Amino acid sequence: MTPLLFIEMTAVVVSALYGILLAARKGMDVMGVFTVAFAVAFGGGTLRDLFLDRNPLFWIGNPHYPVIVFAIALLSGLIVRHLGRIRPLLPLPDALGMALFTLTGTAYAADAGTTAFVAVMLGVITGTFGGVLGDLLCNELPSLFVPSPLNATCAFTGAWAYLGLLHLGVAERYSLAAGIVIIVAFRLAAIRWNWSLPAVRDPRPPGASPGPDGKS
Amino acid sequence: MTPLLFIEMTAVVVSALYGILLAARKGMDVMGVFTVAFAVAFGGGTLRDLFLDRNPLFWIGNPHYPVIVFAIALLSGLIVRHLGRIRPLLPLPDALGMALFTLTGTAYAADAGTTAFVAVMLGVITGTFGGVLGDLLCNELPSLFVPSPLNATCAFTGAWAYLGLLHLGVAERYSLAAGIVIIVAFRLAAIRWNWSLPAVRDPRPPGASPGPDGKS
Amino acid sequence: MTPLLFIEMTAVVVSALYGILLAARKGMDVMGVFTVAFAVAFGGGTLRDLFLDRNPLFWIGNPHYPVIVFAIALLSGLIVRHLGRIRPLLPLPDALGMALFTLTGTAYAADAGTTAFVAVMLGVITGTFGGVLGDLLCNELPSLFVPSPLNATCAFTGAWAYLGLLHLGVAERYSLAAGIVIIVAFRLAAIRWNWSLPAVRDPRPPGASPGPDGKS
């Protein structure tokens, strides 16, 4: 098993664990837990594959991944009882997984001939959309969007660094390694010191009447 | 009209009726009712077709289906006034529809060369995602995910039975019939005796602070 | 720059502004604002392209559009402070944008060989789904679905007018112009006189117990 495959597998497992945390807070049954875990683990990559018209989808082409997530979901009743001990171990593999998902998404998009900005966007989507989808399935305002430790911003920065190094002629493997280090370090620092972006606030009072068009 | 086409048509009509029930509870207008009815009736099949890259989508290839759903939505003001009489008739055709959607989804995926587990998953998605999407459009926690009479579990069981029988050399039509009977009987029994899966619960008190990563 | 491209660009900008209004009301950070603005501006066209299997997606093929939306999101802190002055200017370009998105969606679908009803549906989806997606990302019941000034109905009417005129042999450009005028005039009149469709209401009291199947 290559290092990259090991990281990807870890990313899938950790994403699934986050999905279980989300679903367990809502008191879902095991089918709901599996669905949310599946959405968190595969949502970003699926959207990337659909947007780039890649076939087969990565979890159809790697069919052991859904089986792993299913096994984790079956054990979720056991897992949630040991959350206290598992939780502190999660940020590092989670950051690694986001880094890898982001950079592979960026690389696939660039290979498909998109512009650099679109490639970075598809990378960020790959790295973060799973978490957004999990929140939506649990009927929560996505935590990615409200001020909280930087997440999409780390992915965004690392993806640009990766493309920039490639553009300067640095070899693929070193550009990838640099991108991973940047995303992971930036993300762990953001969690440690609680860095966040300021909220963009509508200055009108919350109870203000909607606009004349009924849309806003 | 073949029996299968008749069941599929019934499944579309019954799914649309469920969509109307959902939308009417939110006081939507006729466009909202149509959208929700459309999403419930076609959401699962659309996701399956996108995931398997099947073209055209089944409701674009069977363009009378959207017209039927539109006609039902136009009549929804009338229909909701007779819900009391319509409601008790729904569980059987609904179970039949879910069975058929599930097994055709499984068959399409297996034909496309997926593994058995992925084929079953795509079958369950085809059979149940429409209801999830309807709940999300109505801004509700999907009832599929919380303990309630077994639904995805019935689809899951029937899809494995169908593939297992095929694998044992049973003819397509008998395998399909057996899968339908299993799903419908299991589902009706689950409704009748209120079988449900236990909730997977996070043991921490509901007001506990989110994790250190701001994500969970 | 042709008139159509100018309208399309305007539509993208105005859609992004609506997204910012939505996101700012939730106190999102700039990444959340960008995501919602992106979803409102490109959601409808993306769904249309996925449903019709068009490649590349229109914002991947026109990669300056995402850059424009990103720039608007970066300035959103500034923009929300001037909302009072911007807001009254929005209904006309918004109606123009919806008209153009709707009619191009209808035209693409008809070119792909769909029936007229499916083409109109895909047109309405293109014109209105962005707003629905923005509401869902902000965890709101989509305002498109509840009684409010007509929106999808205007798109629906204009798309049928466009296809009807084409069918009668009127030249493409005149059919398009007529469709745009109908949608814009209908939409502005609906806002001005607050036309809306009646709600379809479930006559049971709101606290009534769910149906026996746990689904409705």
Write structural notes for this entry:
Three copies of one chain form a homotrimer. With 216 residues, chain A is an all-alpha fold. Chain A has one domain. Chain A contains ten helices and no strands. At the B-C interface, helix 1, helix 2, helix 4, helix 5 and helix 8 of B face helix 2, helix 8 and helix 9 of C.
What's a concise summary of this model?
Chain A is built from ten helices and no strands. Chain A is an all-alpha fold and 216 residues long.
Pick out its properties.
disordered C terminus, globular, homotrimer, mainly alpha
Tell me how many strands of chain A there are. 0
Enumerate the spans of chain A where pLDDT stays under 50 for 5 or more consecutive residues: 206-216
Assign a percent range to the helix content of chain A: over 70%
Total number of domains of chain A? 1
| Total helical segments of chain A | 10
Q: Can you write the helix and strand succession of chain A as a string?
A: HHHHHHHHHH
Radius of gyration of chain A from the CA trace? 18 Å
Strand and helix map with partners:
Three copies of one chain form a homotrimer.
Chain A: H1 3-25, H2 30-52, H3 58-61, H4 64-74, H5 76-81, H6 83-86, H7 91-111, H8 116-137, H9 152-167, H10 172-193
Helix pairs in contact in A: 1-2, 1-4, 1-7, 1-8, 2-4, 2-7, 2-8, 7-8, 7-9, 7-10, 8-9, 9-10
